């Protein structure tokens, strides 16, 4: 991370059903880097921006078509894998969007 960088926290479904606070605690070594580099961690709730959703979807779609955005996904093949995909998603075992391909 660059000095003065920003980290966006959005989602983190893996901690929804735990006793961990939101945002979840970070390792002390990571916290020290954040302090030394003056990095900001900001939380966002998507529903707070519902009035801007249409414009955001249009802009993001444009960037996606131009390959300016890189999407990370965890894909499970077959409907029979849906229960395990859900369990793994809730445990934070996925990277990016969890998808079950049928």
From TrEMBL:
One Pfam family hit: ADH_zinc_N_2
Domain of life: Eukaryota
GO BP terms in the entry: prostaglandin metabolic process
Example of a GO MF term: 15-oxoprostaglandin 13-reductase [NAD(P)+] activity
InterPro entries on file: GroES-like_sf, MDR_fam
Protein name as it appears in the record: Uncharacterized protein
Organism expressing this protein natively: Teladorsagia circumcincta
């Amino acid at each position: 991370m660059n000095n003065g960088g920003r980290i966006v926290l959005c989602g983190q479904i893996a901690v929804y059903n735990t006793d961990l606070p939101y945002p979840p605690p970070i390792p002390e070594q990571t916290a020290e880097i954040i302090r030394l580099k003056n990095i900001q961690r900001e939380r966002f709730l998507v529903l707070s921006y519902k009035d801007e959703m249409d414009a955001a979807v249009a802009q993001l779609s444009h960037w996606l078509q131009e390959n300016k955005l890189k999407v990370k996904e965890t894909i499970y093949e077959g409907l029979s894998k849906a229960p395990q995909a859900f369990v793994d998603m809730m445990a934070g075992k996925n990277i990016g969007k969890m998808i079950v391909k049928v």
